[in-house]
Amino acid sequence: MSPLFLLVPILFPVLGAFLLFFLHWKEDRKREIYLETVVLFTSLFVWILMFTVQKSSAVLFSFTGGFSISLKLDGMAMLFAGLVSLMWPFVMLYAFAYMENAGAKNRFFIFYVMTYGVTLGVAFSANITTLYTFIEMLTLVTIPLVCHYGNHDSMYAGRKYAAYTILGTGLAFFAVIMTTVYGASGSFLYGGSLLGGHHTHLMELAFLAGFFGFGVKAAVFPFYGWLPTASVAPTPVTALLHAVAVVNSGVFAVARLSWYLFGPDFLKGTQAIRIALVTVVFHMAFAAAMALKERHFKRRLAFSTVSNLSYMLFGILLMTPEGLTAGLLHMVFHGIIKMSLFLCAGAFMHMTGNEYIYQVNGVGRKMPKTFVLYTLAALSLTGVPLFCGFVSKYQLVMAGIGSGSRGGIAGVFSLILSAFLCAMYTLTVSVRAFFPMEETDRYADRPEVRDPGIRMLFPIALFGILNLLLGVWPQPLILFLQRIAAGQL
Q: Engineering a disulfide at 396: which of 134, 211, 326, 484 sits with its beta carbon 3.0 to 4.6 angstroms away?
């Protein structure tokens, strides 16, 4: 099948969502069936393409000087598109229940489904110009989601998100120009696509500009502030912002920049890679400490996401196949874990009307299913064996030690410290929920508080099952990622 067919799963959800402007259904059920059908068909087509499409690139539009919009399916694209396409249909079910009594639902779901198509565009990008274009489109379609409630906090979060991403746009654009001019038109080729004749120090500066520019989406230090602030958005939005679409697009872009544009042969031993590595090593522990300090439920999980994004970038920036494997593995597993945690937090907020950690006291007795699943995800994120989080953290530790570099060893110590802090900021919530101190149970006299319905609980349970399954049987995924890291896919 021609790689031009990669355009179908990008356009289908965008056009399907756009039609909602003209389809004015009075019943929510009709809209929900329509949207779930659009998302399911998109996911199905993604998986068909992964097994049938040719591994060459397709040029959709060519500019001057080698700049072009092109699509390609390689191992990295398969990983990111596969992760997104598996999660989106189930989170849609959760979103239908969560937004049941919300206003402006038509507008919300238009941008929510459009985001799916744009995220697939990021995954299928064949060069840095295309990646840059879709990442900027991702900003445009997610700003209305962050601002959805329209109150002061939502509008402030949207403005802050826009300001940070505009800064990232300017930095990343320098990397786009330099890698297109001094590379094979900015094409993604395993091991790097830079050509001779470039100024080494200028290209190192271009790498740092691209790292921090694209890294804004991955909440890299010091540009992380937008992510906790954006937690005011509806939970289905924050789950995708913090677990799949936006933040993972940033990690994905840095992986492309490091391994498919500049390459390990160019970056190893340079001052640029040292600066990037020191940044993420520091940020692992710093963001974990900020999470421990935070008292708002979703903001605490947001700072946790910031810390774990640095885990992924740490593995990628080691510039070893083992590090790349570990970084990508944590990207997948963190997506599963954090999706479960955010959906549990959203269920708590939806069913109780409360938002803060101290308001969790005793709720586990009223919402046992939700908080058992939350606890399983918290144990995984901490790195307890038999859960998938342990597998990816173990791989990161071994990659850091195996790198033999001071940055790698420092990263291992930072990772262990942040894992300890993670246990404190996640599991204390479970303790509060199930074992409140005397006279602090807030829900003893609230019979209306209960676990959410099946549409909200089913996605949480599904991610909980994946958390356990991939914790005891991760080998097929690890082998797949090892092939990507070796340049075989």
A: 326
Top-confidence residue, 323 or 64: 323
Q: What's the pLDDT band for 10 if we cut at 50, 70, 90? A: very high
pLDDT in tens, 99-137: 887 777 888 899 999 999 999 999 999 999 999 999 999
From CA 480, how far away is CA 489, in angstroms rounded? 9
Q: What is the largest CA-CA distance in the chain?
A: 74
127 close to 104: Cβ distance less than 8 angstroms: no
Alpha helices (H) in 182-270, listed in sequence order? 200-215, 226-229, 235-243, 245-255, 264-267
Domain membership of residue 382 (yes or no) is yes
- Mean pLDDT of the chain, nearest integer: 91
HSE-up of 37 (CA within 13 Å, CB side)? 7
Look at residues 176, 244, 187 and name the one whose alpha carbon lies nearest to residue 72: 187
pLDDT-based confidence at residue 464 (cuts at 50, 70, 90): very high
Burial of 8 (0-12, 13-18, 19+ CB in 10 A): middle
Instruction: List all residues 6 or more positions away from 233 whose beta carbon is below 8 Å from its beta carbon.
Output: 145, 146, 147, 148, 149, 154, 157, 241
Is 380:337 a contact under the CB 8 Å cutoff?
A: yes
Q: pLDDT tens for residues 404-420?
A: 889 999 999 999 999 99
Whether residue 437 lies inside any domain: the answer is yes
> DSSP letters of 361-373?
TTGGGTSHHHHHH
Kindly give, in sequence order, each residue whose CB lies less than 8 Å from that of residue 270, ignoring residues fewer than 6 positions away.
204, 207
Q: How far apart are CA 468 and CA 314, in angstroms?
A: 25
| 369 inside domain | yes
Q: What was the pLDDT predicted at 252?
A: 95
pLDDT at 55: 82
The number of domains in the chain is 1
Identify which of 160, 309, 298 has the alpha carbon closest to the alpha carbon of residue 244: 309
> How far, in Å, CA of 424 to CA of 306, rounded?
16
For the chain, percent of residues with pLDDT exceeding 70: 99
**pLDDT tops 90 at residue 244:** no
pLDDT at 41: 96
* DSSP single-letter state for residue 346: H
102: tokens are 């919300």
Residues 6+ apart with CB under 8 A from 484: 75, 76, 79, 324, 325, 328
The stretches of 99-225 forming alpha helices (DSSP H) are: 105-123, 128-146, 152-181, 200-215
Domain that holds residue 392: 270-489
Residue 223 falls within a domain, yes or no? no
